[in-house]
Amino acid sequence: MRNISLVVIHCTASPAGVKLNVADVRKGHLKRGFKDIGYHFLIHLDGTVERGRPWDQPGAHARGYNVESIGIAYVGGILDGKPKDTRTVAQFHSLRACVEIIKAQYPLITVVGHRDLSVDLNGDGVISKNEWMKACPCFNVKTEL
Predict the structure, then answer these.
(1) What is the mean pLDDT of the chain?
(2) Total structural domains in the chain?
(3) Model confidence pLDDT, tens digit, residues 25-72
(4) Which domain holds residue 60?
């Protein structure tokens, strides 16, 4: 079993309401040169959770953190061409449930959004909006999960 210390929450950066599944995301990730889908779990618009990359394998979702993390993505994240929290109520609940299940197995993990792994460019100890490398997952993981 891998040593897991981090769960990284993502969005697929796809338009709100557009259905995607693991096969769709895998196809896009393979085109980008990944070995497989980068995420371990994908949360569909209806809240269904689909397994992606096997849990025992490092993901390809957060450079520099893949070895010690599990990646969860919800489908969506774009509205009118801009980053936006587009989670459905079902996705909201499923994401929370996924995190709780993982926390039960790894009680010392930290849960962060992909944007929270951005570099603190001004050195003030806080990753500010202007320092985000991306807006993903388009909500504040620290206050919601």
Answers:
(1) 91
(2) 1
(3) 999 999 999 999 999 999 999 999 999 999 899 999 998 999 999 999
(4) 6-144
- The whole-number pLDDT of residue 128 equals 64
Report whether 22 contacts 125 (CB < 8 A). Answer: no
Q: What are the helix (H) ranges across the chain?
A: 22-31, 89-105, 141-144
Q: pTM (2 decimals)?
A: 0.91
Q: CA 56, 31, 43, 47 torsion: positive or negative?
A: negative
Contact 73, 43 (CB under 8 A): yes
Asked whether residue 119 is assigned to any structural domain, the reply reads: yes
Contact 117, 62 (CB under 8 A): yes
Residue numbers annotated as active site = 10, 39, 114, 134, 136
